Amino acid sequence: MSAANWPIDGNLGDMSRRLSFFKNLQRVTNRIHGASNIDEIILEMSEDICELFHADRLTIYVASDDRHSIVSKVKTGLNTHKDIRLPISEQSVAGYVAASGQTVNIRDVYDQEELAKHSQRLSFLKAVDERTGYRSKQMLVAPISNAQTSELLGVVQLINNRSDTPFPAVAEEGVQALAQTLAVAFAQRRNPPPAVPKTRYDALVSDAVISAAELDLAQKAARRKQLELEQVLTADFQVPLAAIGAALSKFFGVPYEPFRPERLRPTELLRNLKRDYVEASQWLPLEETQEGVVVIACDPERIRSSRMANNVFPKRRIVYRVSTPHEFEQLVGQ
Predict the structure, then answer these.
(1) Domains (ranges, CATH) in the chain?
(2) How far is residue 246's CA from residue 202's CA, in Å, rounded to a whole number?
(3) pTM of the predicted structure, to 2 decimals
């Protein structure tokens, strides 16, 4: 990851570093959405996620079928294949987040007074530390929940900021965005819609643009080169952007909007949106029609579930269009 060598710290008020962080986060979320095997890609990207957040360890839990506990799906830094199973209760920080649905950012999990600010009954489960000799301290933990139903799907937990300071506010924003992406991926795996492609590029195969073997090769090449899959598809497999756009349209269930050089900038709609925000959040209003405010995004589902556009245009109907990442960059720079 090209910009993962700088620490995420309290100095991220610097807009360029903040923007770099969110661009790298977008690469992570794009790879999760583009993966055909969600378990494999999350495991593969766990170290990248730690680097991005400057965290020493990462644990991702999924909710058990009976909804009484959460079970570790990914855990870095532990030399054991045994799953960690925690009750959904205040007996642990991750269990509390699962029970309350709240994101917590804790300076020191051994500080009982700090834990009591979240809940008088909250405690830190010290058993893993005692067994391994590891010292957990800072913790940033967010619930993974279905945006439509509020159903708990899991928990993402970052442990120990490598600078030994509390995780900054920008990390809280980032982990919540990561949790939203994981929620979409987990929900699709749990309840796959029969007529919808499993990944955003599967329609390239069903539409006979490329073969399944070629798509698999492209995915592996993108992971190996740490590039966006779109870049590999267009450069190495000569897939037209229009075909990629059509595949994205089928995946997200919204129309594809190609880049149009002659398009006029909607000055009134853009009045309260700074370019840095647009580049980091990856959505942009195009125009206002009888349907409502037309919003274009590389990941319309993420924008819809997070209600980003609704917060900017609270009293207007939002209709979505999908763009390829390359064409979105062209649009922003127009």
Answers:
(1) 15-190 (3.30.450.40), 203-332 (3.30.300.160)
(2) 11
(3) 0.61
Is the distance from CB of 51 to CB of 2 less than 8 angstroms? Answer: no
* Average pLDDT of the residues of the chain: 87
pLDDT at 14: 64
Q: What's the rounded Cα separation, in Å, for the pair 121 and 42?
A: 32
The answer for residues whose C-beta is within 8 angstroms of residue 278's C-beta and 6 or more apart is: 284, 332
Q: How many residues does the chain have?
A: 334
For every residue of 234-301, DSSP letters joined together read HHHS---HHHHHHHHHHHHTS-B----TTPPP-TTTTTT--HHHHHHHTEEEEEE-SS-EEEEES-HH
Residue 74 near residue 59 (C-beta atoms within 8 A): yes
- Note the pLDDT tens digit of each residue in 101-150: 999 999 999 999 999 999 999 999 898 888 888 999 999 999 999 888 88
The DSSP secondary-structure symbol of 78 reads -
Residue 239 has pLDDT above 60, yes or no: yes
Phi first, then psi: give them for residue 22, nearest 5 degrees. -70, -30
Sequence-separated (6 or more) residues with CB below 8 Å from residue 138: 106, 107, 108, 109, 159, 160, 161, 164, 165, 166, 167
Helices 15-34 & 169-190 angle (0-180, nearest 10): 10
Rounded to whole angstroms, the Cα distance separating 98 from 10 reads 27
Task: List 86's β-bridge partners, or say none.
Answer: 70
Question: Token pair for residue 244?
Answer: 């990629």
